[in-house]
Amino acid sequence: AWAAGVYRDRGWREDAAAALSDAVAGAASPAEQAAWLERAGQLSWERGDREAALRQFQEAVRLDPDQRAAQAGQGRALAALGRVSEALSAYRVALEKQPLPGYALELGELYESLGLTDAARVQYDLLRARVSRDEAGGVDQQLVLGQFEADHGDPAAAVARLRAEWRRQPGIAVADALGWALHRAGDDREALRYAMTATDRVHGGAMRSAPYTYHLAMIERSLGRQGAARRHLTEALRINPYFSPLHAPAARAALAALGEPSMEDVPDFRPPRG
Question: Of 33, 88, 141, 154, which one has the fewest beta carbons inside 10 Å?
């Protein structure tokens, strides 16, 4: 399983999947087997394989009904497959037993994508309440709270929270979240620096991630870098066309609005005559 994590971070998806398969086969208990299956489901989800992700998440829950991460994963995959009622039920079960802020954010965004704004607001209130309880207990939830505030609350407050988080524990996820919060707050030039940190593999960026690449693309679009934005929107949707019930449709709309590249922007490389 540790090897699978290394392979995943390097973008070696097939090696990661094979290593996780070995981990599942060598597990010492059903609960351990379910944990590795949940990781395999995450890997399948990240590469846009909805069906494989759902099978792996379902098997994890069958082996260990307390595997709430797999329960929430089922919700994610079912929503991507258009099985919305089942997706909502899966998320509710996960939240009933383990009300993590991240699950509440995912369910809230699914409700919002369906136009159910009141139901979404209930989940967002749950997220805030859970973060407050966790923080009182010494659990750091600033990353998920910053992600929530950037899209659904106060982007300026998200920037302040995520800057502090970056000082405490800089990392790829924090770089992506801070870059997106800066974009939402209107500071695209600084946002680009963090978004590039999160996605530039040469300088330590993450594996190919649809959400991170989408964030980079939208920042580039705001800066007028249409070619780069078009390329990264295409890449994000190629990695996982279903990465978010809210942002994947926004990515498709943005790509359509950019249209085809203009031939006027292509330099003339024809050699001079004679």
Answer: 154
